[in-house]
Amino acid sequence: MRILVITMLAVGALAMPARADVSDLEEGFPTALTDAYPKEYLGREAQLVNRFIRTDKEEDGFFFEPRLEFGFPRNAQISVAVPFRAGELEPDGLGDVRVEALYNFNQETLGVPAVSLIAGLETPTGDDSEGVDPIVGAVFSKTLGRSSLLHRLHLVGRYQFNSEEQADERDGRYEAVVGYSRRVSPQLFILFDYLREQDLKEHEETNLVEAGLRYGLSPIWVLSAGVGFGIGAESPEVQATVGLQRELLIPYSSPE
């Protein structure tokens, strides 16, 4: 798996730049919100998520996650994420590598939202991790009206199976996100969402209200920043995220 990730990063670094899409919502850039619109066919993008979390127990954690994303096959995208962690929350070092695909099977119409399915695997590359955990989910996105500001509502649901359940763990956990996004200017998007998710540990849940922005630094770079505040016990006191995305490949266009 590590050799595969390194090879993909090297190939991506040699690719030619394309144009970044500031309206393309991705998990972690900068909130949990994702949209149902996949990356353009054969597009490639390098991504980096940096996140700080302070828990309700006053513990601090830092998370760094480089990713590669590919627009393949048509109407779909595939991503590879390699997380690292530091701080007081978990043991330092490599986390569980995740491979995830999103497939859009229903294009948005005036009365019907865009709908995409999610499927993925989380591999046990981190300390104390066991088993390969499947991930399934769905995303719904609907544009409101015909304004150039692209007012959109989004609904995301994921479920991760725990294939090697320990004594104090659930056999699976869910994540649900509902949110709104809109354009402020050609280079700036803002988004707001509410996240509820279960931890793999029994009797622990997170409720988070998030806000963020995405800004096009240049035709190939997008900067995102966001903040979230926990609601209720067990939720983080605060969470702050900064992300960078860079387009790497000019999409292929078949001749007419």
Task: Report on this structure.
By secondary structure, the protein is mainly beta. The chain has a single domain (2-244), classed as monomeric porin ompg (Porin, Beta Barrel), CATH 2.40.160.40. 5% of the residues lie in helices and 52% in strands. The chain contains one helix and 14 strands, in the order H-E-E-E-E-E-E-E-E-E-E-E-E-E-E. It has one helix spanning 2-13; strands at 44-54, 60-70, 76-81, 84-87, 93-94, 98-106, 114-122, 133-143, 152-161, 172-185, 188-198, 205-216, 221-230, 238-249. A twelve-stranded antiparallel β-barrel has the order 1-2-3-6-7-8-9-10-11-12-13-14. Strand 10 (172-185) and strand 11 form a beta hairpin.
- CATH architecture verdict: Beta Barrel
- Count of helix runs: 1
Total separate domains: 1
Backbone structural class: mainly beta
Briefly note the CATH topology name.
Answer: Porin
The number of strands is: 14
- The global form is globular
Oligomer: single chain
- Physical arrangement of strands within the biggest beta sheet: 1-2-3-6-7-8-9-10-11-12-13-14
Runs with pLDDT <50, length 5+? 1-17
Largest sheet: 12 strands, antiparallel, barrel
What is the N-to-C succession of helices and strands?
HEEEEEEEEEEEEEE
Structural Rg: 18 Å
Q: Span from first to last CA?
A: 39 Å
Classify the beta-strand content into a percent band. over 45%
- Considering the protein shown, what is the CATH homologous superfamily? monomeric porin ompg
Helical coverage, percent range? under 10%
Mean pLDDT: 89
Protein name: Transporter
Pfam families: Phenol_MetA_deg (PF13557)
Keywords: Signal
